[in-house]
Specification:
By secondary structure, the chain is mostly beta strands. It has one domain: YhcH/YjgK/YiaL (Jelly Rolls), CATH 2.60.120. Helix content is 11%, strand content 46%. The strands form 3 sheets. The chain has a 6-stranded antiparallel sheet. The protein has a 3-stranded antiparallel sheet with strand order 4-8-7, with no helix packed on it. A 3-stranded antiparallel sheet has the order 9-6-11, with no helix packed on it. Helix 1 runs antiparallel to helix 2. Pfam families: DUF386.
């Protein structure tokens, strides 16, 4: 997992070390007013790579009501365009999670785990401009409320195909 903020003075250096498709995804977020974008699911082209752009208007919620998720074919670039704050939970997928719902073989490419109170879960505090990149081995729980108050958020998710970030010899 990698996280940062598009307003960081170190963004240029951070983008320089990322695989090109992930760098393009973050640049796309900096070059477009995602807070004003219409909600929905779109296919866009980032330097010749088709990716899915999801523009979601959500409410944050209590952690106990949210399910941990992973993806296998896609890397999630999640971005808080406006609203919030939001907390995002994460931990490493060690293969021992109890599956609640498996939709990996569908276009959604998502698997939900049952909540595991023993999981060593970290948190990212997200404010507008914050992004998090979740790889297939990163279990993540987005849209957790910060404190006792639910917040409206505009969440952007760019789904970058994992194989677009791998060296040609492994595709």
């Amino acid at each position: 997992m990698i996280f940062g903020n598009i307003y960081s003075s170190m963004l240029k250096e951070q983008l320089a070390i990322l695989p090109a498709p992930l760098s393009c995804a973050i640049r796309y977020l900096t070059e477009h007013d995602m807070a004003a974008h219409e909600p929905g699911v779109f296919t866009i082209d980032l330097d010749g790579i088709p990716v899915i752009l999801q523009v979601l208007d959500l409410k944050t919620g209590d952690r106990s009501g949210l399910r941990p998720e992973i993806h296998r074919k896609n890397i999630d670039v999640q971005f808080l365009a406006c609203g919030g704050p939001e907390e995002a939970g994460f931990y490493t997928d060690d293969g021992n999670g109890q599956v609640e719902e498996n939709l990996l073989d569908t276009p959604r490419d998502i698997l939900f785990y049952k909540n595991d109170p023993a999981a060593e879960e970290g948190r990212i505090h997200m404010i507008p401009g914050t992004f998090a990149i979740y790889f297939p081995w990163d279990v993540h729980i987005p849209a957790i409320q910060s404190g006792d108050t639910k917040s409206s958020i505009r969440k952007i998710v760019i789904k970058v195909p994992l194989d677009s970030c791998l060296p040609d010899s492994t595709r």
